[in-house]
Specification:
globular; 364 residues; 22 helices; 0% strand; mainly alpha
């Protein structure tokens, strides 16, 4: 009725702005406010139900796990048309991910069942939920999705999520299945990048040849170069170095970092030439690459580029080499929120910082 509708609108308006949420919580108390938000789970609009799930997660509403889990069920009147189903049950994907974030592993069997849903969003949400739960025992069922062709609308999302989950699970037994996607006649750049980085995480050097097939694809070659570098596949150094002449500045930047990881000393002079590039980002990547290689010959050029970037308010690094170098050593350009290679990134950052200190001492 009108009262219920008004209450829903009031809650949504509160949730629209953080300061209003704070005021509402202070007014009625956190427990009472979460109770109001939980009522959104029964709203007839799937978007509102999804919104309620997200905010219960943010507010720490783990006591509503059971209510959130109910959203995994098919709703009465679910449309037969698969395109209409995508929006009708969208909260199932959100609910699956939320249960994962809450660590509600008791619902893992429900998410495993959802892996067989005919809707791609359901499968993607289930995979991500299982990843957050750390449900490694279900790696095999997740790996089965690598040949997923049930729903072309979400095909790549499903496979990308599955690949990253298997990598985070350190499922080395699935490395060959992951590499198999790179052998397909047509593979999207998102899936190819995820596969390359996953194999890097899993020490899958045996499949370097499969990753290297992407070095000729303008949409995937930068990620492939970095994945090969992380696997120390030095036999592809020459092919990676060719990317320094790529038209796309992002590919040049990726190639630079890859060569730095490979410690490709034979290319130091060519890399140093990029310190003079017009593109400020490429100049910075060249400087960081030379730091990774412990270069002393071009110390002044490196210092000039780094200090110029620190003096540019656009970047906001403000004399912070750790933040600066970490931002430039971007191992997963499209997946910055993921932590598959974070340990390696930190190691490389520390290595660059140490050499930065050395060239500054030598310049004093």
């Amino acid at each position: 009725g009108f009262k219920e509708a008004k209450e829903t609108i009031d809650v949504l308006l509160y949730l629209e702005k953080i300061d209003q949420i704070t005021a509402a919580v202070e007014k009625v108390g956190l427990k009472a406010f979460k109770t109001k938000v939980a009522k959104l789970l029964k709203n007839p609009d799937p978007a509102v139900r999804s919104y309620g799930v997200v905010w219960l997660l943010v507010l720490g509403g783990t006591q509503y796990k059971q209510d959130i889990a109910k959203l995994l069920d098919d709703k009465p009147g679910t449309p037969a048309d698969r395109f209409e189903r995508l929006s009708y049950n969208i909260e199932r994907c959100v609910a699956a991910m939320a249960l994962g974030e809450m660590g509600a592993k008791e619902y893992a069997p429900r998410l495993v069942a959802l892996l067989k849903s005919s809707v791609g969003y359901d499968r993607t949400g289930a995979v991500r939920g299982l990843r957050s739960m750390g449900a490694k025992e279900h790696a095999k069922q997740i790996a089965d999705l690598l040949s997923d062709e049930n729903d072309i609308l979400s095909y790549d999302d499903v496979r990308t999520a599955a690949i990253k989950t298997l990598a985070e699970f350190d499922a080395t037994e699935c490395a060959e299945q992951i590499a198999s996607v790179l052998k397909e006649e047509v593979v999207s750049s998102e899936v190819a990048a995820a596969a390359g980085y996953a194999l890097a995480r899993l020490n899958g050097k045996a499949w370097s040849k499969d990753i290297a097939t992407q070095l000729n694809d303008p949409t995937a070659q930068g990620d492939a170069a970095k994945a090969l570098a992380l696997l120390d596949a030095k036999e592809y150094t020459k092919e990676i170095a060719r990317l320094l002449d790529a038209h796309d500045s992002r590919i040049r930047s990726d190639a630079l970092i890859a060569l730095g990881i490979l410690d490709a000393q034979d290319y130091r002079t060519q890399i140093a030439g990029h310190l003079q590039e017009e593109d400020t980002d490429v100049r910075s990547y060249a400087a960081v690459t030379l730091l990774l290689m412990g270069d002393q010959e071009h110390s002044q050029g490196i210092r000039d580029v780094i200090h110029a970037e620190w003096n540019n308010p656009r970047f906001g690094f403000a004399n912070d080499p750790v933040a600066h170098f970490s931002a430039r050593i971007r191992l997963q350009r499209k997946y910055e929120s993921d932590s598959l290679l974070e340990d390696r990134r930190q190691q490389l950052t520390q290595h660059a910082v140490e050499h930065w200190k050395q060239i500054n001492r030598s310049g004093d």
